[in-house]
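RESIDUES AND SHAPES:
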Amino acid sequence: MAKKESLSDQKINEFLEKGIKQLFKYHSHQSFNYKQIASRLEIRDKLTRERVIKILKTLVEKEFLVDNGRGRFKLNPEKSNFVGKIEITKKGSGYFIMEDGKDLFISARNTGTAFDGDIVKVKSASKRGRSEYFVTEIVERNRKIFTGIVHLNDKFAFVEPDDPKINADFFVPEGAMPSKIEDGQKVVLEFLEWKNPDKNPVGKIIQVLGFPGDNEAEIHAVIATYNLPTKFPKKVVEEANQLYKQDHKKEYKNRRDYRDVTTFTIDPHDAKDFDDALSVKYLENGCYEIGVHIADVTHFLQPDTALDKEAIKRATSVYLVDRVIPMLPEVLSNDLCSLRPEEDRFAFSAIFTLNDEAKVLDKWFGKTVIHSNRRFAYEEAQEIIEGKSGDLDKEILLLDGLAKKLREKRLKNGAIEFGGEEVKFVLDKNAKPKEVVVKSSKDANKLIEEFMLLANRKVAEEIGKKEGKAKTFVYRVHDKPDEDKLASLKSFLSYFGLKLQHVKGKAAAFALNRLLKSVEGKSYEGIVKNLAIRSMAKAEYSTENIGHYGLAFEHYTHFTSPIRRYPDVMVHRLLQHYLAGGKSAYEKEFALLCRHCSNQEKNATEAERASIKYMQVLFMVEHVGEEFDGVVTGITPWGFFVELEKTKCEGLVSLDNMDDDHYHFDDRKHKLVGKRYGREIHFGDRVLVKVLNADIIEKKLDFSLVDVYENFD
């Protein structure tokens, strides 16, 4: 009887098989013997080499490999088609994303009819002894809606796409456009077909937005580009209105009554949807009962209703500069669910007993009814923290002290403190920007953040740390950083005298914190933070808990914003189900929803950034010819990018606009050097620039260099 493999043996074999498969996929036209494979995979011990031999035989049996004789193996030609996502560059070339996150380069002539983000089938072929890759089939289109500028002819038209990664104009045949349309207008186009890469893709114009530069036209172009909904279906509105008309007071008896406990909200001054409130109760033993009360959306949002289906589809609220595209109709998001002051509201609460050291002594989760006594803007709470007397100042100061202790514990445990700044706009009556405000996180913001983190962590632990078989749950996970990316970051920073220790796992978090601490207050602080963030994995939703690296939590979820995030709705339902003694939910259903929500979150983030970029350029239109202080954020062979200090607007100083010398790009040291006078431009230099042009069509700014204040090094 054959010996059964242990779990560790299975894991090792799975890891080796994956590595061998990737090796042959990268070198699809080469053959290898087992010694060469072991060498490529850096395998030196005899036992593991024997495993490699067994796996090779198994892969031949599975027809993934073919045995060429004399112990040499090659990828089966029939298995050399790969299916995955392609990313297209502005120059037309592409990168095919492999399973392990690495990519294959595909030249512009070989991308076929692929658009950026499409799922494609790629085949390799040998050319001059090297593997070359071709897109052979479009498996699934990433998008079918595009925006651009229409150029009219007698009976047809072309649409020049806004997206610079679309390297072909769309052909619009006769009859595929509205009768009322003018040359040069911005339009929304629906893609129809693209059969031949030597010809133009075909589409039809489904909406005329207006002329380029018009505020409504540009924002609606963002909405169309990212496929954001503009209104709720009739059935959804009807269900929401019906909920509003119902009398919900009979529900009070089913909940813990917290209406007599001091409760308040702290939010942005212009907020309308209040997801969370805090309550404070002083206990006789000298401890504190702190309530984190979250809008009980799931009381109103029932499964399988039109409301719920639309919320799933949207998955998140999207916050563009001049408008919000909510996940829920306003009658719910801004009224029934919102924890507004001086009104009874339903909440799903996390109640904690804390001592003076912010240690959690006891906890309770459940449905409550609350009554917020006061609504604070962050600015008002911050004034109290800084010493101003005011409403509930004792409670705010208590929470601030506890929050600082919670934060200190997190950082000691390895949480990474990225911080960061947020760009906000003051808009006029026509929704055009009249001022750019850069806001940083202050103690009032951190107060709310810490108690939301506490609630999210403790909810995740309530389910994830239970003894016995793990139950299906929705986690917010963040993987450890890729070692290659950290090594690249370390190498890049070393050119500028910045040190990042080459360590792995949790130690890397402490090393990153030391790096961030060393650049605090420097002109290039924000740039280094952005570089560090890019080296990290992206947080996402998953039913598989791998912990949250950035926060240094073994268990973490999103529980605190169900008005604007569907994952929080799932968490509320699952938590209530398990508190009531329910069995584990169907994991696959929630895994699919997690993937969908992660994708929608990414799409919303990109849309928000696009609206910010447009507003920044629009703001700078009124400042062409003016001079601003900035910091060099990037160096290229054709110029360098500068971020303005006061507005965070970024633009390009082209070498074509630098006539004081002829500059060349030193790619090894990441700098520009003047050949005649030796002037150098470095990453992180503080400079004075003049605004030459603000192009609201291409969403870009052009600067000229006036002076260099100080060099980074």
